[in-house]
Each structure stands twice: as structure tokens, then as C-alpha cells.
Amino acid sequence: MHAKTLAKAQAKNARRNKATHLKHHSYLYCNSPDHIPSGWQVSCFLLTLITQLPMEDYIMISQLNDFIFCPYSIYLHNIYMEASEEIYHATPQTRGRIAHETVDRKTASSSKKTLTGLSIYSMKYGLMGKIDIYHTDGCKLVERKFQLKNIFQGQIYQLWAQMFCMQEMGYEVKQLAFYETSTNKIIPVAMPTKEEETQFASFIQRFRDYNPTEDLCTNSNKCRHCIYCNLCDRTELENVY
Description:
By secondary structure, this protein is an alpha/beta fold. The chain folds into two domains: 1-52; 55-231, Lambda Exonuclease, Chain A, CATH 3.90.320.10. The chain is built from eight helices and eight strands; from the N terminus they run ααβαααβββββαββαα. The strands form two sheets. The chain has a five-stranded mixed β-sheet. The chain is globular and about 50 Å long.
């Protein structure tokens, strides 16, 4: 074997062995009676994550509801993500951002029994994002929303996605809920069944397989309420904002 080819093969094997070692150690705590992993354990998990899947291949949890609303909006988001939010953000998105600002600054709670703004990942589903609030004393995961007139399936998928990430990272999750900041109301959400978890996995695969060049069946009502409507090449409508 050529010396350069041999060196590449040895380096590849070394990376594979390192990934296996990290994966083994990062999952040792999953069967621990403690539901809060240590900083070292989370660090091992993140190192394992980096070796398994390029970060650009991960799906942002915050985009799951948008994909159900309109798959093409994800494509538009990726196009305009570097642009100023003033170009496309409307009142609902501004309110939503404000609702999360205290979490992003990690000031939503001063309690030592509460985790806020924790970065989360799942190798199984290829997801990444941040949680809003996790109450360690009751193993309760909470997502903040400014207003919830209706709870859509995509919003539930986002909360489930956070739960799957947390569980994979070694945290125990026993309860799920939305917190409506405009009314100070807690809205419990049921834990997913095995069948619902299978449906969730299928949905994630549809997200990955989506091709923005495919024909798109537009919905005029959805288009008018889409923040990208005025920038979209699939409709001549303008949004209501």
C-alpha cells in the first residue's frame, strides 16, 4: 500500500476509535439514577456529537413548526437568514423573540433548581437547539410562548424534539408544558407514545428529504400570514402585516 494511502487509513481508524471511545463514555451516565448529568458528561456528549455528524447537517428545532406551516419557508429562511430581521419579521415574530429574550440572557429564573437556555443536541434525529426552561426538581421541560390561541402539531413536535435531545444527553424528562407569558398560564402537554415517536421520526425524515424545487401547492391564507410572503417567488400575494 502507498505510504500516503496507508497514513490516511490509519488516521481514519484513529478517528473512528476515538469516536467509539467518546460515545461509550458519553453514554455511561444514561443509566445512572441521577437525572442531571455533570458538566464533564455533557462535554463528552458534545465531543461525540462533533465526530458523528457535521453541524451543517443538523436541523434547528425552531424550524420544525415552520416546516409544517410551509416547507418552502425553510428554504427562504436560509436565503434571508443573513439579512436584517426588519426585512421580514412581523409582529408575531417580534413578540415571540421578546418572550424568549429573558431565557436567552438566562435570567428567566434565579432558582438553582431551574436550567434555562441550555444548548441541546440529538445524534439520533440530527437536531439542535436550545431549551427555554427545565425544572430539575420535577424533571419538567417548559417552552415559553407569548400567546397560544391554538397549539399546532409543529409546536408540539418542537417540544418533543427538545425532550428527545435532553433524554439523549442524559437528562430525565417526566413532564412537558407550554408557558403562555401573556396570560401567565401553564398548559400541560402529554408525553409522546411509541406510535407518536415513530410519526415524529417520519416527519424528521420528510424534513431532510424536502427539495425546494418540487412543485408547491400554495394556500392563500397561509401565504398572507407568512413573514416571507413579500419575498417569496411562489406567490404574488402580500402578507397581512
